[in-house]
Write a structure and sequence with these properties.
homodimer, alpha/beta, Rossmann fold, N-(1-d-carboxylethyl)-l-norvaline Dehydrogenase, domain 2, 6-stranded parallel beta sheet, 3-stranded mixed beta sheet, 13 helices, elongated
């Protein structure tokens, strides 16, 4: 039985986010059973003491808590509900936590399936990017039952600086969607303001300095503005991942019969950004796509 | 001759911004000659020692510096270049400064006309709203010649906490436009995120608290989010004034052949907001118009 403190953790997904997060749990002394679609990417963790498992089911076997952090909702479904999935092997009384940014409806479906076999379930997507994952400064937005959240909290606190239970099943994913919706249109504002400033022959660095402390200020302006000025469009957060998230948000808004024209425009502009070969660049490379829309080069201007 | 320090100031426009700004100059000991379309709104300043003048020309007569802060670009044109305008009476060696948010092209036109009669000209719009005007914490974004800016600086510093010369004539207005462009789409992101959160039955206050410190954070989210939660849609900055500014920005972008789809959407959504009777409310009342778009009431949800 796993009703006491979490000691053994099954970990599914060792990508750019999952690998450093799992590493923090090894450092904290948890016994970790790890699996990943590509075994190669889990080897460093195995060398540090994690036990390699060939399937999510095997990683889940005997664990007090199982964390999944994979790519798309379809991957979440496969590793959780699929034939070799977590719920086929996890013990009664354990907790499963999906930290992928995924669909609120799928989170509710997994919660119901888990509850049917006496397993707690949390959706717990994060923000803060790969830097936050490496430095354990993520924001964890959880949805589920309070008692499951309390048991998982010591684990989450190894991964992030802010950990909040936002509500019932799906509430973590919904909160992450609200986060992405605010970022999406905000980034349009930042990129359009920067391009306008450059086309107007302003000293763009000075403009950022002038407007960032006031009502136009945002995390995106202060963090991505200077990077764009240096011509640095590395992620941060990748355009193609953002398109996935915005697609989920649009589908959820549609389901709730909520029209969000700004979100729809943002998604289209990011599709255009990806179409121009920038899918693996940072979200602020929207700036480059905006310029190309007008046949204008970002690099050519002053400042 | 007015080549030395500014002692006498002509002040044109005593609206919600202009009146408190002019008051700060009276407090600082400047001799002020004031005019306004509606005399009534200048009386408090006259009681405090300003000399009432019936036209902008009369206010400008003998002044070392003339400040205009009126409503629309057409008003700026009238009070500056019109028959009873400032440039018809201002002395050689003086400086005129337009602090209205107005057209960069008009700022250049006024600069040229002023230069032709030996008068310095600055465009110097502000951000910070009526609160910033009352507390003298405005941001002043100036365009023009360095020597004119240096002479006007002691006056500007009575009005704002940040005063920057952004470049040549028009650069102040262009900077203000960049500021408004960033705010416009940013506010769409904030309002859509808040409405999404409420429709998803989240605790919206908790969502703001969770996402505001991270990549979704912005001045608008932190300042207008809580007001919207309280059902407080008072300005701040009025929707109808914002529509004016966005129209100027769109026209300038068009002139520069720069397509800004986010700005275009924002302007349309604000027109819709005004059309629903919210033109005198704050810019965050976009939230209400967004809800009505989906037949949803902001007030009806939890949180």
């Amino acid at each position: 039985m796993a009703e006491d403190g979490v000691k053994t953790i099954g970990w599914v997904g060792t990508g750019v986010m999952g690998a450093p997060m799992c590493g923090h749990l090894l450092d904290a002394g948890y016994e970790v059973r790890v699996t990943n679609r590509t075994q190669q990417r889990a080897l460093a963790l195995v060398e540090r003491g994690a036990k390699w498992c060939s399937t999510p089911a095997e990683a889940a076997r005997g664990a007090d808590m199982v964390v999944t952090i994979v790519g798309y909702p379809a991957d979440v479904r496969e590793v959780t509900l699929g034939p070799d999935g977590v719920l086929g092997a996890v013990q009664r009384g354990a907790i499963v936590a999906d930290m992928t940014t995924s669909e609120p409806q799928l989170a509710k479906e997994i919660f119901e399936a888990a509850a049917g076999q006496g397993v707690g379930s949390l959706d717990a997507p994060v923000s803060g990017g790969d830097v936050g994952a490496r430095n354990a400064t993520l924001v964890v937005m959880a949805g589920g039952r309070e008692q499951d959240f309390e048991r998982a909290l010591p684990v989450f606190e190894r991964l992030g600086k802010t950990v909040t239970l936002e509500g019932g099943p799906g509430a973590g994913q919904h909160t992450k969607m609200a986060n992405q919706i605010a970022i999406a249109s905000g980034m349009i504002g930042v990129c359009e303001a920067l391009f306008y400033a450059r086309r107007a022959d302003l000293d763009v660095a000075k403009v950022i300095e002038t407007i960032a402390p006031g009502a136009a200020g945002s995390w995106s302006l202060s963090n991505y503005g200077p990077r764009a000025l240096r011509g640095d469009f590395e992620p941060g957060f990748k355009v193609d991942h953002f398109i996935k998230d915005l697609g989920i948000a649009l589908a959820e808004a549609r389901r709730m019969k909520l029209a969000l024209p700004g979100l729809a425009l943002a998604e289209q502009l990011y599709v255009a950004t990806s179409a121009r070969g920038l899918g693996q660049k940072g979200t602020h490379s929207l700036l480059l796509a905006l310029g190309e829309l007008s046949g204008a080069s970002w690099g050519a201007g002053p400042g």
